[in-house]
Amino acid sequence: MFDKVLGSGSIRRVTLGGIAALTVYVAGAGLTACSQLLIARIVGAETFGVYAYVLAWVTVLAYFSALGFDIALLRFVSAYRANQAWSLLRGVIRYSEQRMAVAGTLIVLVGAAAVMIPSGEISPELRDTFLAGFILVPIWALLWIRSSIVRAFGGVLSAVVPDRMIRDGALICIVVLLSQVLKWHLDAPLIMMATLASTTAALILASLAVRRLHPQEIDGIAPSYDIPIWRKTILPLVAIAATEAMLNRCGVLVLGWVGLTKEAGIYALAFSISFLVALPRTAANTLLAPTISDLFVRKQHHALQVLTARIALWTLCGAALSALALSVIAEPLLAWFGRAYDAGVPALHILLLGQVLAASCGSQLSILTMTGCERIAALLLILSALFNLLLSAALVSQLGLIGAAISATITLVVWNIAMAAFIWRRLGLLPSPIFMLQSAFRAKGAPA
Description:
mainly alpha
């Protein structure tokens, strides 16, 4: 039934698109992981903990600074370009960058003032790392926005390469140059400055791509604005993006907040390794988004059910196999980074289990956002993040980084159960391999 509905051509496009998406995400995530793993090995757990803690804050604040336009521009720029609404196209680009600049500047000023207030609770290394990190916030947000503009202009590689390749690739080169060639002693502020430099290089390339690919029709045209529509669209998007970033980095944030920066570094390394298991699911979510929207609009309920269940089965198999492999080599793998990282082995096992359980639930967030339920998606995500924050605060005080891992896994399970319940009640979908098992049993029990 599924093959007949979509057709062999559509299935082939889905397959080829999945391979392309997985390749891009594996390459980009591989560079990101390599940069973090390289830093963790070179500087040790204590310094890496300071850097990871500040970087977690920077990431969350950058999503707030982007105000959801890094996602919304994909929709608006593409639509205005297709309809030749050149004044609105120019207006939405200008509006997004101006509002991002205001938000980013406020974050820099407020953040810098907060860490400069004399206090015995913050070390000079942590303070200086925060100062460099706050400067990174608007630069990173602008990189995401301009990469989205380039992608909407049709430059897929030109959009992906700066953020996914150049930024982390340049960071690796800088770290290797400073530590191995120049023999500098790397501390957290210096690494954050290197991150700032690599992100700036990526932003320059993305800006050049915007200039090269932008439609000539918008040159010299007066911008027009549809601010109510833009604001209505970006509110749930910024909530989803920033809250998801906070959800993924909650353990690092809580450990660093209570002064356990070394444990924050160990946890950050374990989480980065465990997140490799999520790569197939991340690629599938990116691939499935337009297909889910198309099938939902055309009311092809059964095809949508079978597609999401099949993808969930594939990602579950991939996640289970990769998690098993990482679990077997967890102890020697973490020991390779230094003796201090051995304490992260139990946390890594727990986080790997959480990623497998999440993979078994399928692409539920994509289903919600692509079927007009983005506000419910944002609400469930915010509630899950708050639950994770409270649970982490309770467990970290008792169990340290193992408590952070337990909290992250429990939250992941609760969040996916909540999404599954809503999707089943509202859409009648079961986006997990359970549907495939039900279909198999029904077919086996059906009369010949």
